[in-house]
Amino acid sequence: QLQLVESGGGLVQPGGSLRLSCAASGFTLDYYVIGWFRQVPGKEREGVSCISSSVHSTYYADSVKGRFTISRDNAKNTVYLQMNSLKPDDTAVYYCAAAEGPVTTVQAMCVTQYFFGSWGQGTQVTVSS
Questions:
Q1: Percent of the chain with pLDDT over 90
Q2: Looking at residue 29, what is its pLDDT?
Q3: Residues 106, 52: contact at Cβ < 8 Å?
Q4: What are the beta bridge partners of residue 88?
Q5: Residues pairing with 37 in the sheet
Q6: Which backbone phi and psi does 14 adopt, to 5 degrees?
Q7: What is the pLDDT of residues 48-57, one digit of tens each?
Q8: Inter-residue long-range contacts of 36-39, CB under 8 Å, 24+ positions, other chains counted
Q9: Nearest CA to 52 among 6, 101, 88, 87?
């Protein structure tokens, strides 16, 4: 059974950092595009960052570019999202998801969220003083 488990969320002050982890079980991440998405109650889910299976392609939403870094360790079957210079607007539930592919560009997959069939349960990130 394919399963993704996020961890690393929590409460942090503005300007602080967190590293989210997305651990996979039941399958290997090697051939999957992995994405981080976030959602605030009452708003649509947003594609934050995605990484291709080869690590040659990454995508970042404009709102996080220069502050967040996505990486993957296939040996540990884990994908990470390093979040620096956090802002209150970054407060959300963060989900990781997996898609076989890439089917199209990583950016298109991340923005449309199509093809992501396996999702984690989410981890809360709260940025507040």
A1: 84
A2: 86
A3: yes
A4: none
A5: 47, 95
A6: -55, 135
A7: 999 998 767 9
A8: 36/70, 36/79, 36/81, 36/94, 36/95, 36/96, 37/94, 37/95, 37/96, 37/97, 37/113, 37/116, 38/90, 38/92, 38/93, 38/94, 38/95, 38/125, 39/92, 39/93, 39/95, 39/122
A9: 101
